[in-house]
Design goal:
Low-confidence stretches: none
Number of helices: 15
Radius of gyration: 30 Å
CATH architecture of the largest domain: 3-Layer(aba) Sandwich
Number of strands: 12
Order of helices and strands: HHEHEHEHEHEHHHHEHEEHHEEHEEH
Strand order of the largest sheet: 2-1-3-4-5
Number of domains: 2
Length: 329
């Protein structure tokens, strides 16, 4: 291996130009891919929708890495999918591909020898095959039921031997398939969260009902409750507030530390209704917890009762600490 150039010999402008050149080449290829999409793309989406089983994605080398990402994107957006390594398929994993499934096989050349067994398996058992390749007339595309041809485009490496532009186009085509399927199925944020319960993404899609404390934990008192009992309720439940309900159970007021300070003179001689702030701010349980955090920050409060409508019986209580623990800030 040749020695790297000394740091003093590095030309930042040349490096920046190389980066821009690569991105420009790949951007042009993506534009060609976009403009070249035809009825084959629509037929591929329709075939996936019609398949009662899963999408089995396969590819070798860099195409395999792209295939894993495509399978993951499909699976997380409502289209059951799984990646099968072609070499492993030849040693038993072909059993993961069954009648009812549909195969999505990737190969820039369309001649990858490791794919031969999985292609032959789909032909033998009548499993629909979508082929993605960059060479018209290649073995993969001629044997496929639906051929998705990548446009001719130079690899961004300059030598033409490193998969760069071709993998970018394949990845984008996989995203296009996934989103088209997602939109046809009217895939909702609620369903998206089912597949992404963890991490920042799951937190952003969490609903108030997912994080709130339920009815059994609520600090609720009647309007005629003496303040001595209200203080015990506030202390025992640990939220620093108490909700005041009417005879039907509807939330009509809230007592906070600020209310206690405002009525400190003769506090123990008052009832909950005399101290409370009327018509408290609430939030429906089906709203995003992110919205609740924004409201609490704007109003400089630490919790919200969750009610289907203002004045209704509370379904729960959301504290700012619950949101912070869930990663919502």
């Amino acid at each position: 291996m040749e020695d790297a150039a000394p740091a003093s010999a590095i030309d930042p402008n040349a490096l920046l130009a190389a980066g821009r050149r690569v991105i420009g080449i790949e951007a042009a290829a993506l534009a060609a891919l976009r403009d070249g999409l035809d009825d084959s793309f629509a037929r591929a989406v329709a075939a996936i929708l019609a398949a009662p089983g899963r999408v089995i994605v396969s590819g070798m080398g860099k195409s395999g890495h792209v295939g894993r990402k495509i399978a993951a994107t499909l699976a997380s957006t409502g289209t059951p999918a799984h990646f099968v390594h072609p070499a492993e398929a030849s040693h038993g994993d072909l059993g993961m591909l069954a009648v009812g499934d549909i195969a999505l096989v990737l190969s820039n050349s369309g001649e990858t020898p490791e794919l031969a067994d999985i292609v032959a398996y789909t032909r033998r058992f009548g499993i629909p095959l979508i082929g993605v390749a960059g060479r018209e007339g290649s073995t993969l595309l001629t044997r496929a039921d639906i051929a998705l041809l990548l446009p001719e485009a130079q690899e961004a490496c300059g030598t033409g031997i490193v998969p760069t532009t071709s993998t970018t186009m394949t990845l984008a085509l996989g995203d296009a398939l996934a989103v088209a399927l997602m939109e046809h199925r009217r895939f909702t944020p609620e369903r998206f969260r089912e597949f992404h319960p963890g991490g920042k993404l799951g937190a952003r899609l969490a609903r108030v009902r997912d994080l709130m404390h339920g009815p059994a934990q609520l600090p609720l008192v009647a309007g005629d409750t003496p303040m001595s009992q209200v203080l015990l309720t506030m202390s025992g439940k640990g939220f620093g507030v108490a909700g005041v309900t009417d005879e039907t159970g509807g939330l009509v007021g809230i007592i906070t530390d600020g209310d206690l300070r405002r009525h400190m003179d003769g506090l123990m001689g008052h009832s909950a209704a005399q101290v409370m702030t009327r018509d408290p701010l609430t939030i429906p349980p089906d709203r995003l917890a992110e919205e609740a955090v924004r409201i609490m920050n704007d109003r400089k409060i630490t919790c919200l009762f969750a009610c289907a409508t203002p004045g209704a019986a509370p379904d729960g209580l959301l504290h700012i600490h619950d949101c912070l623990r869930a990663g919502i800030a």
